[in-house]
Design goal:
By secondary structure, this protein is of the alpha+beta class. It has 23 helices and 22 strands. A hairpin with a 2-residue loop joins strand 1 and strand 2. Helix 9 (about 265-285) packs across helix 10 (about 330-345) and helix 14 (about 455-495) runs antiparallel to helix 15. The two termini are about 90 Å apart.
Amino acid sequence: MKLQQDGDRVVGTYPGFEGFVEGRVENDQFSGTWTDAAGSGEFTFSISPDGRSFMGRFGTGEWWTGIRTDTDMARTLLEIPDLSSPERTLERFLTAGNKSGEGRSDRLGVTLPLLDYDAYEGPLTVYDRIGLARMLFQIVDRLTMRIWEIRPTQDLGEILEYPVQLTQSGTGLTYTLRFRPMTDTDGTGSPVWRLVVPPEEEMRATLDALLKVHGGELPHSRQHHELRSPRDTMRTFIEQWDNARVGKSELFLKTMDLSQIATAVREQEGALLGEYLIEVLYRIGLPLRQEISDDPNRRGPYTHFVHPMGSVEIHPIEQEDGSIQWRFSAETMASARHLFMALEDMPLAADTVRAESTPFFTIRNHVRSIHRELLRETGGAMEVWQWIALALWLVISIPVSWFLTWVVAKLLRLKKAEEDQMLAPEIRFLWPLRLIFVAGIGLVALRILGLPQAVDMPLRVLIGVTLSLAGGWLAYHLVDKISRVLESHSQRYRYRDEVLRSLATSLAKLAVIIGAVLFLAEILSLPYQGVLAGLGIGGLAVALAARSTLENFIGGITLFADKPIEVGDFCRLGEHLGVIEAIGLRSVKVRSIDRTVVTIPNAEFVNLYIENFTRRDRILLRTTIGLRYETTPDQMRWVLAEIRKLLLQHSMVTPEPARARFVGFGDHSVDIEIFAYVQTNDNNVFLGVREDLFLRLIDLVDASGTGFAFPSTVNYLAKDSGVDPERTERAEAIMRELRKGNELPFPEFDLKTRSELRDTLDYPPEGSVNSVPRAAAHK
């Protein structure tokens, strides 16, 4: 469609369907009416925000889409065709058909003036004519010819019809195209030649015969990407060049045999050689795809161009699955640079529209415009300007890398020295960073400079080795630094998932080492894949040899999953008692009470009986006191009651369970068992609480008039003071009063008394440096 705008009014034509549109534009919408061979109606078009495409909707509910065309397409579709000879007519027909693609019947509309439909008696609509044109193109597309070979060798002045016999590559099937001169002229007085459209039945029979080699079906629109023939490869190579220029080079590279190029640089070097080859084709002349063999059963190479400096050949290459793919040969790719140098001054072929160049060719063309002598080849096939560019890279990259390193070191605080590190920050971080930045800038330079392989490969290897070693060294020490930062944070915020930190650190370091080694092997083209595959066979032997290491590793994972301990926990581990000092991927380190460090392998550790004292929510206080046998029952009752009061009153003792019971008669004493929990998991705090309770018990027993029993066989002649009768009487009197009032606290205090007694005792005790007045404590 060709549109012209005048103010808000737009008119246009779409010759393919003999159509006409007119309407008005408002903002990004174009609304109006359309008229063509199929009828007329209304439409609304909406232009995309980037102005490159539009979508239209008809009043009938159908849709129409379009995109701004490039110069080459516009010339093909809109220029007046040259029909001065049969070869020009056929070339124009094939060019339009090749650009039409699947489902683009509108583009075939421009071929209608090239065709002669006199074989059809009845009237044909434009849609009928386009359908017949497509069928004729499908026939010609299955044939192979050189356009210049159909040029007449004799004078065609009085000839009414010029036949041309074409052949299908590989099968030998032939088909005759006929051209007729028309009496009307093209404005120059010369006759115009049109391609005769045969009857539909004849074309269907011919097409069926030609498709047998393809399984009886027309190839789908992307089947040529499978590279089944030389034609598929050349077509894909030319079509995919635009994608390769913007980095989408997978299919473009697939058309070339790059097996002789190192894997590490294959993509970059292949893209550069591909551009050299496309530049060669621009100067040879981009072929019509029908000029190249499409025989899928061909086995010999296809030679497209021969020159003393090299040739352009497409070879069949057998794949692992036994199929055949056609690719530009390794020899062609190796000679592409020299072939371009030999043809560089050759002007582009007529009608060739050159795509936008990559940065390398843009720079090279600019250098050429400055002085042709700068393109002179020197040692190593390097051009003068490339040597100058390499020197500039070194001059620029060193100060730039130093500055970038300073910035990164400032942001990440890499210059800070650490006491327990033998190596200085300069060696661990700064020098590797500088080398990485220099190498990174070098990679960018190599992408732009397009150096010959003899120089490019060593430089890429040198840069790759530098990146591998410096990057691995830097990453290894960064992992170590991050681990130390996490460790300091865990100590500050009491985050103690030490197993995870240790496991992650060890795995990260291992991954860095393996990654650096594999990257280095890739750069040096070492066959590490076979070694990796061999690990599957030797895995059992490795596992047996490193059984203890694997057991410790699995034990470390078990510790991480179960988390029975954390750093800082006080534990009993089998026969060992101490504080967990470190949990590693291989072992657990325990600081014993004797201040020695006990290292326990993880494989053994997970099978130990572990008692974690730090995770106690409270500590058990359980003891038995023995009173003298002279203690009367009421004295015993008074002591029991007072002990229970003491336990209930003490704020550090849990009320449930907290008991004091007369449990039996010992060899030398009547025994009272005290059972209670102290509300702390700190052993030092527990010892202080227990000490306070024991001291209060001494006071309590002393106040009861009895005393602690003790085993003794010592005979002494001193007069035994015995029990205090006054205090005994007082204790017994209290018990009588409680008995009369039915208030004896046996077996337990009543709920009211328990509530009144709870937490009424001062703790720490009065007079202690830690004591707090009761009123202030409960404020």
